[in-house]
Structures
1.
Amino acid sequence: MHGWHGQALHVNLKTQQTRSEQVSPELLQSYLGGRGLGDRLMRETFTLDPFDADMPLIFAVGPLCGTDLPATDQLAIVSRSPLTGTIFSNSTGSRFATRLKQAGYDMLIITGKSDKPVTLQITPDSTVIEEATALWGTTTTETLSTLAAKGSSAVIGPAGEAQVLFASIQFHDGGTAARGGLGAVMGSKRLKAISVDGDIETAVAEPQRLANARDDILRLFNASPALFGELGFKEFGTAALVDLIARRRMAPTANFRETFFPGSFNYSGPALQKEYAPLKNGCHNCPIGCRVTASDGQPLPEYDTISQFGGLLNNDDLPTIIAANNTCTALGLDPVSAAASIATWSELRGSFPEPEDIVPLLHDIAARNGDGEQIAHGARRLAEDSGRPEVAMTVKSLELPACDPRGAYGIALSYCTSTRGGCHQQAGVFAPEILRKPVATDRFSFAGKAKLVKIGENNNAVIESLVACRFAFFGASLEEYGEALAAATGIGHTLSELQQIGERIFLTERCYNQQNGFDRNDDTLPERFFTEAGSHGEEFDIPPLDRVRFYEERDRYYRLRGLDQFGQLNTTEFLGKQP
Amino acid sequence: MIRQVEKYLDKMQRDRIGKPGGMALVASDDTVIGQGNDALQSLGSSLLERLDLTAVALVEPTFPFTDYLVVATPTAETRITPRDTETRTFLHDIPILRSSQLSGEPADRIAELLGQRKGVLVEGVGIIAAGSITVEQAYINASSLFHSLLVMYLLDLLTRTNIPEQELQQLDDFRRNWLKPLVSPETLLPGKDLNDPTTILQEMSRVGRITVELGLVDSFFGNISCRFDNTLYISQTAASLDELEGCIDPVPFDNSSTCGITASSELLAHRLIYEQTGARTLLHGHPRFAVIMSMLCDTPDCPIDDCWRDCPHTRLLGNAPVVAGEVGAGGLARRVAPIIGDSGKAVVYGHGIFAIGRDGFDDALNAMIETEEWCRREYFRRLDMKISNR
Ligand SMILES: [Zn+2]
């Protein structure tokens, strides 16, 4: 087999049984890998409680992983989110992906709860479950250094152990499955860490064709200002976005009451560069290198983290932002949800924390101490418990990232249609609306946005199943990655076949959510965005979203998706027809 | 969406990339909207039923040079690969469909190919281009294909052994009636002094529009900038030169802000040129005869096989130096900056012209016109010589 290995490793932590099982070529070709294959493997279990012993936690790579194609050292982590209750997939870049593939597997499916804390060690020859009581309670940083000799590792921190609803999974090289609390699912299984290593190569069907696709992709990276431009990610990391988002008046400030934070120049890309003289870093095999580390080796935060611990909390103190990022990493917390939940808590109590109180608060959240206990349930529950649900800036309980929906209407719509809740990544509309790639769209218009979101969602479902880094698509497109897929696997998919795969994956997720009780009322934004204006810019205003136009466009989206006016589809019929 | 369809069909008509009445633009939201030629519209609609695209542009070229390209392609080949940078960077290659392959339901076959690339060439129909997420994108891709195919056709003419009489007549008509005369620079309005940001933004928009109106460039492909104090004002990536209002980024020379992350992909070239020449303004575009002439290299037994990337030589087109180098971070910036100062102009292999101005935009625009004019004259001199030698 080319591209894939066709093997899944099943591990039951309760029975301690492990088995390698073939994945049928039909499933591989219909779901590709990563998010798509992970979703498919959840078909029997997606209604279970996220902390149920039988809830799978899936790590899946794709057919391009292990090749030398840029931005493909990537994997998806799939389960049901305890934070949102939706099916949830995180994709991230880590050498862990390539090593899992080199161990001989396309996916790892973990079920069962161990009685004692354990680690899992996977190589081509063996899968070992080892007691790890000594590691329980340690930070991700400590655990990762203990496991340094064992290949690549994915670990949880104290927050995951305590089942904080937005606990993350951290990878040894800076990758993270940050969102949706999948670290809590791992914690509920008492699985502290997974290490993988191996040397099995990914067979490529047509190496020369793959090399050509690689050249095409690199040429497009060169031509992309956001990637290789002197003000882009390669130079500044994603912190390059701080200034742009400020200028667009889309920087969530003081829990989204404003959209411009004058202090943001304190933590812009250039400010970071001046202060920390960063070294360029990034995923193995990726020429973009969007992750930057300070010259002393400590990782510097990415855009969303910077902005959330900055303007969202009314904080312009850069050292605090860096410290908060390090603390989230060490404790295994999603920085976006952590900061947003603190912002909600702040609005509820009427004041934002002083910079020096932020890090201690994060420790309280991870330990579920004092105020931290309430905040650990996330913004939506926190606000509801306080009788003021409107204060939570969430969609489907997922805290919104650092991109205000009033400043870009496609992003606004995509927050609502995303199957994992308040996230614009699934639709990839950030590129055309903010970065003008591959072409620009009018961010203050709803025209054409339903279609833009739908196409973006389908494409991105493919991207996260290949798995390729979404940043690569600020330069290249599925045209080139589709060609690479054909070269790697020897199986050509036309663009419309790929789009069908994307649609299959996306609608499968929508079916799961619908069966778990989600409906049209969940496809909406917090009231604030329809009633309050954002901060005005030099030549433009940021008015509240036009509710009528917003729902018109959402209805159009439902029609384009083949859903009824309530946003529903016949789930049994749909799932029954899928491979 | 109907407004977008009207706007870009109108642009296609102004660009004259197709016969009058031989173009259509079809877009699909939750309904399908089309404008232009009826037959092409209905073909466009059938394509949108088969592919999840936002729009399709269909263009029957002014004279059937696209058909001549298909005929000249060996029957075993299923795609053609023009050698210009546009193809190399963005299009990769262009699938072709011969009329003999169009029996049955042509939309099936066309859709299959259109799913693989940004546009396809169909014998007897013309150019069909996809807009995956916007209507504008279909327009852009159609004009990109038109540019690459026309450049390829004209370049091939110089090496063709036999040009039939009918084709010669069409060519003559194209030369006399389709190509716009490049006006002498004196007839252009004099520019204003570039002493404040407001004037600079206005002048940039004005000059961008003139560049397109002169037929020097297709609107989408090109960029323009102006240096003022410590700021470089530059058109944004994916901006159209004839619609620059609101699409210009101020970029501080000391990189103290990254707002310019949306600036043109040639930002680095612009910056280096300012740093090394002291110019005030810069204009970059892809005029077709400069692109054609830049690729005519007579070096015998040259060992270089990737001319776009690896050619270390500087050749001359008139007094404009020609260098190699790929788009964006691909190397052209470092090659152009050192050689543009003397003549105020430079041509990049297979790509286009960079032209600078010392005070205003006039001399930058003049330099671009001069270069393109020289290349056009030289091209037809060679073609005429070849034709009369038959
Ligand atoms: Zn150019």
Note: The pocket of zinc ion is lined by residues B 284, 286, 351-352 (CB under 6 Å).
2.
Amino acid sequence: MEETEGGSGVELLDKLTILADAAKYDAACTSSGLDRSARPGGLGSTMAAGCCHTFSADGRCVTLLKVLMTNHCAYDCAYCVNRRSNDLPRAAFTPRELAELTIAFYRRNYIEGLFLSSAVWGGPDRTTEGMIETLRLLREGYGFAGYIHAKAIPGADPLLTRRLGLLADRLSVNIELPSEESLNRLCPDKGKGAILAPMAQIRDGIRESRGELAQYRHAPRFAPAGQSTQMVIGATPESDRHILTLAQALYDKYQLKRVFYSAYVPVSDSALLPARAEFKPPLLREHRLYQADWLLRFYHFRAEELLDDGAPNFDPRVDPKCSWALRHLDFFPVEVNRADYEELLRVPGIGVRSARRILTARRVGPLTFSGLKTLGVVLKRAQYFLTCSGKMLEGLRVNPDGVLRHLVALERPALAGHEPEQLSLFN
Amino acid sequence: MGWTQVSYLYDGSFAGFLTCVFDSYAHREEPMSFSTPEDGRLTLWPERRIGTDQAKARRVYQSLDKKLGAEGKRLAVQGFLTCLEEKELHLWRFLRLGYQLGPGFTRGLADERVAAVWKAVGHLTGEAHLLKGFTRFSEVDGVLVGEIEPKNRVLPLLRPHFCARYPGEDFVLHDRTHREVLLHRPGKWAIAPAEDFRPGAPGEAERQYRRLWRRFYDTIAIAERYNPRCRMTQMPKRYWGTMTEFQTEEPEERKELAP
Ligand code: SF4
């Protein structure tokens, strides 16, 4: 193993390569949830809507300079590339190097900010201190007002986590795996308690800070863009139902802004994990989980509506909303000119934007199917589930099997990006 | 409607277009086409040359708020920045409908006249949103210089964003398509025509940061998830030409900045 410490040895280009490579499996890369402009003499702003600066060759949005402070790790989590027992080049940024790089990238509009995480080296406290020093340099030294997402390190002194949260916009603690059992098996050094404790601390810190801000405008802001987490999907045997129920509980109990799902990419030959040779990252499954997560957050669905013991996993062929609709045909058809917002949102193919447009446009007069098209509502899926003034779309024949077949056919091109082998995993 | 059908020849400016609107109402004329001297188009209708008149333009502009409502005004103003084919004609019909129906007419999304402008403005704001991310700057002699090739005239929409992002910087953003630049110095900005824009050559520090960025870009993709189609949908190829991560290393380095 190549050993390098601090600023010595490895060139900046090599360090960046090693420490970006080590961070790339983390799915979170958003900069959303906060509007802020630069302070006088400062640099940078944030946009509530978030902003993708590029898309990598795997089609993922790149918003932040996502790197580890160091990939030297004292722990040995089986599913992680950076585990102690893995033989790979190691490096560490100095706080100054990383702050300068962030500013240089930010000024060129390559990025919206920094996503700083770290392997655990020299203990959780020392690790967190290095991160704090980087963020302090950025905020105080450079007057940087761009976005910062920092990973809280489980086991760190709560006072240090607090300082981290006062410098960052978003904090996250990764739940890592979808169950305690898997966690104990694969990350013997981390317990569920070590993960949930900082999560609760961050939740309370955010709540407190909001309360103080309501009273004094200049109260310190603690993680103003909220908290998120991520878990690895497909390394362990949990069902979609288990995962989605967990996500829902995290939203409910810890007021998380986002839960990210990361399809396991085989990085280890451990007998505890799926064998590397045949394993393909379950990308389609990850995609369905994101769709379902979206339904939880914006469409007022509950996990238990989407999956149950009879069907604990998503149908790979159609999206979760279509599959819900097909199991609840009694809910349909929905009448375009009378349905309320919530009902419209349950129609496959109708999103938040289409539902809002329908509500707006029908105040002027009753809508027809051709009117819906002019509005920009895509009818390919929705047509089976709608009536306009009591009438179905003319010439449309509906029986449940036919609808399923049609919806599956519509999805096929969209699924082409996912390896077709994927489908057989779930059948 | 019994108005005379005509064709307007005007200077292509927004004030010029508003003058056309004023004159069309004053003379009860219905424009069937608009052209500018550069188009040199022939027309089927009697052609009227409209000289831009700031006073008339201002009167029309000031009527927009009251007659069309805030949303109608926004669509009319931003509609003029779009690359919609025959945008003046669409906008004239849109305004006419607004003058007839009053504020709230923009809700009639099922009306072709409203939908066309909505769609074009959606395309404009969508493109501006993407370019907030896809624009790249280089540092040349202490000034940040960026270039884009948008379909719509996005500079007025990008202006507040980049001014808020770089309040203390001198920067220039060049729109190659419409030959315009956004210029910024701390506390001041301007959007101006630029016929012959040539950024200076990058220095060694600049080239080093480009290398670092390309390396980062190449490193963060996960090979097992390779998905070029998805990347292309999210980030159409037409934007790649001005993005640092898709340019090759020096010595071609200078070419990427050539117009
Ligand atoms: S502590 Fe973090 S970096 Fe270290 S092995 Fe575990 S997951 Fe990987």
Note: Strands of chain A lie at 54-55, 61-62, 64-68, 113-117, 147-151, 170-172, 227-233, 258-263, 334-335, 386-387.
